[in-house]
Amino acid sequence: MSFKKLLILSFVASFSIFNLHAENHDTEQNIIDKAKEINQKVKKKQADQQLNISSEIGKEEPLPLNDPFVGDASLGGASTVSVITNNDEERAQMSLYNFKLVGIMNGEYESYVSLINPTGEIVTLQMNEELSPGIKLVALKAEQAIFEKGDNSFLVINFKNQIKETSEPF
Asked: Is 65 among the domain residues?
């Protein structure tokens, strides 16, 4: 009888182990299924967000093809510098008439001005430096640069690209 009890007990134990293993397998499968569902929900939410972002970005305007700091030279157009002077011969001799004012930098010890020509070359001058022979940077204001042309003759250029000749620098 003890053998029969031992045999029955071993059968019951083996069935319970198989049953536990089967239940454990089912719970593992259930966890995997839940993880797949959560993963699908997350992917759907990300796709919705991406669709929303792309619809928002689609409303932006494209960037211009020309450089706004170069002006008309990037389009191959003519320069729009307006000159206030008396004769055309002076325009041809003055190299400042070929430039536009694009930047003024004032510092405690040094000051600079940046000019650009129709081809897009930027020239940066320090105070008292010559742009061309006889044309020297002598003063800077908030919106204009003053060049000395000669004795009691000055050229003033502003950000509107207007150049005028004066006998007084200020």
From this structure: no
